[in-house]
Amino acid sequence: MRILLILLFISNFTAAQYWGGQEIKASELTNWIPKFEIEYAGSYHFGESESESDFHLFFTEDGIIGQVQSGYWEEKTGLRKSNYLNITNIKIDKGGTFVSDQHTGQFIRYKTENGEFLNGLKINNPWTSWIEDSEFEIGTKTKLQFENIYYGKYGRASFKKLRKDELKKMSAEELKIMKNEIYARYGYIFIKDGKMDKYFRNQKWYRAEHKNVSSFLTKIELYNINLIKQLE
Fold first, then answer.
1. 65, 45: one domain
2. Greater confidence, 129 or 113?
């Protein structure tokens, strides 16, 4: 089910506009500083329609993982395909300031007219290419759980560091599916009529889109793939 998502972005006229056309002032935004840093983890929705994107943010023992998921129209085929951008070296300070190699920003809150508080992430240099006249863009934190973002039987392999002891209890077939699910979630095109091709084409969530998804893989996915390969 599609959750109602809100777009906020600021113009050069010091007023921001969010989904629905209502304008707000930057001064109406306040910093969001939760009790625990882990509360920042989740999915943030930016934009709407063809310009929408989702920023998935989660914490591991090795650091913070962030990935932008968006879509584009392929020129040669006219097909709508997914694209993924990994945000590297993410750091969040006690005041909710967000920094990375590619983007900077601030975790914020906005109070709506009915008194409801929305939590979000303000990006100072938006990855949304069409926002030419905006100083920043804000994505609202959704209620989506990672289990509903990373499809398949073993979705945790994309957002949780796996352990050898748990993998040793799995069969060779289960390990193979777990490993290839990571690629399949990015729309990897398997060898036609091969075992994995037949398996994933029977999964409702799978879409064959890309011949190579290596650049999409996060550090945690690369770690899990290598770990599974050791045990296969």
1. yes
2. 113
Torsion of CA 111, 35, 159, 139, to 10 degrees: 20
Q: Which two tokens stand for residue 94?
A: 């006690």
Pairing verdict, β 29-31 and 23-25? unpaired
Quick check: is 2 in a domain? no
pLDDT, tens only, 119-130: 999 998 888 755
Co-location of 192 and 120 in the same domain: no
Q: Are 220 and 163 in contact (CB under 8 A)?
A: no
State which residues form the domain around 39. Answer: 7-144
Q: Average pLDDT of the chain?
A: 86
Q: Write the pLDDT tens digit of every residue in 57-92.
A: 999 988 999 999 999 888 888 888 999 999 999 999
Judgement on whether residues 96 and 41 belong to the same structural domain of the protein: yes
What are the tokens at 210?
A: 């890309």
Domain boundary (90, 111, 144) is at 144
Q: What does the pLDDT read at residue 115?
A: 79
12 has pLDDT over 60 = no
pLDDT at 9: 34
- The CATH number covering residue 189 comes to 1.20.58.1690
Q: What is the 3-state secondary structure (H, E, C) of 163-196?
A: CHHHHCCCCHHHHHHHHHHHHHCCCECCCCCCHH
Whether 178 and 228 have beta carbons less than 8 Å apart is answered as: yes
Q: Which of residues 126, 144, 162 is at a domain's end?
A: 144
Q: Find, among 138, 141, 171, the residue nearest to 154 by Cα.
A: 171
